[in-house]
Amino acid sequence: LSPLSDLLSYTRFLCTMRSKSRTYDYHSIVIFRLSSTTGNEPDGGSDSTRNSGSPSTDAMQLYAMESTCPHLGADMGHADIEDTDVGLVAVCPWHRYDFDLKTGHSETGLRACTFEIQIRSGGDGLDDQYIWVEAPGDGDWEVVEVRPVSEDFADPPDLSRLSLNDAGSTQPQEELDQPPPSTLLEWAVLILNTPQPQLKVDRTRQAVTAFRTGKLKSVGRNKPLARPPPDMPPRDQLNVVQPGKVAKRGKAGSVKSRIAILHALANIEQWAIDLAWDMIARFGKEKVDGEPLPHQFFLDWTKVAEDESKHFSLLRKRLEELGSYYGSHTVHAGLWESA
Predict the structure, then answer these.
(1) CB proximity list for 170: less than 8 A, separation 6 or greater
(2) Which residues form a coiled coil (predicted)?
(3) What number does CATH give the domain 2-148?
(4) Where are the extended beta strands (E) located within 180-275?
(5) What is the pLDDT of residues 244-296, one digit of tens each?
């Protein structure tokens, strides 16, 4: 998988593999590195999964588990690790289903796939020791990427603030003061009509969390929408131009060029959020062979919207670290217009 020394800076890693014979087939697992004395993750720095120390192999336990919860597909990279009477368990961040880190068994009757993981030594130093993990299925896999899991978005938003206001938005005050929508389709239309970027992200996280946890119970298939989804989602405090009018960004050889590229990527993520909600708003009431769309359709597209929100937030944060901000450059709607 990788040298052991590469897995000492963080305590959770996402490993992506690709089938050698079926190159379209990918599989992801999460690797947990825990302390052998407490079963807890080592303390770290500013990121709750980070650890700057260099523990010995005798002071750690390694576990490998499929990256998504078998219940409804939650990201197990953000699972809580708890020490119970039956051993260490990973607790799903969405519905608190617990899975034994060794066997994958859960009190709910579900089972997550777990994989044997070993440290094999080729010498005395940490650089001479390697992580080996059992391959899924037929074993015909190659490692594509091993990357640390960030905890920046692990905590769910505060659902007591479902009716969000935002001082920087030009939306009418009476619209901002409305109670939260009661159906997923109403949320989709509201978010599509939200022009302020951060408010769009916050509302996305709140709607997705409420839907997954059952606080938002209705899709809204049979309830008329007060307004249709917009032909073009509005943008607040942004200079929107035609794609050909956007200034050249360069090749990332300077800070100025990197800022321009990051800004362009952040713009893409904002439109990607809208495209995910537009799928829900426009097709949520459709039927296939006389049957309404399955619940999984809505789970999948809300997950896409949430993922794009995470991507935008990371890019915006990096822009600010470089001394810039989202809105400092012109943007275009090419992604939306091409969809």
Answers:
(1) 195, 196, 236, 237
(2) none
(3) 2.102.10.10
(4) none
(5) 777 788 887 899 999 999 999 999 999 999 999 999 999 999 998 899 998 88
